[in-house]
Amino acid sequence: TNLHVQTSLFPEINAEQKILLTVLRQHENCTIDNIALQANMPVSKTSSMLLELEFIGLVRTLPGKLYQVVP
Fold first, then answer.
1. 23-41 pLDDT, tens per residue?
2. Does an H or E element contain 47, and which?
3. CB-count burial class (<10 Å; 0-12, 13-18, 19+) for 12
4. pTM (two decimals)
């Protein structure tokens, strides 16, 4: 339900980006390879969508090229 609340604030988020947010919530501090594997998406697509989510302010990159959802 928390995902629904956040995504309602950002209507430009698409279904695939919602999948990435769900994966990141289930597996905190993930590498892009792990996120892509869990989301069943190519790494290149996952990378571009994570960047978009960073610009929106929903995801951040941590040292070691790890990603997490912004609390």
1. 999 988 999 999 999 999 9
2. helix 43-56
3. exposed
4. 0.80
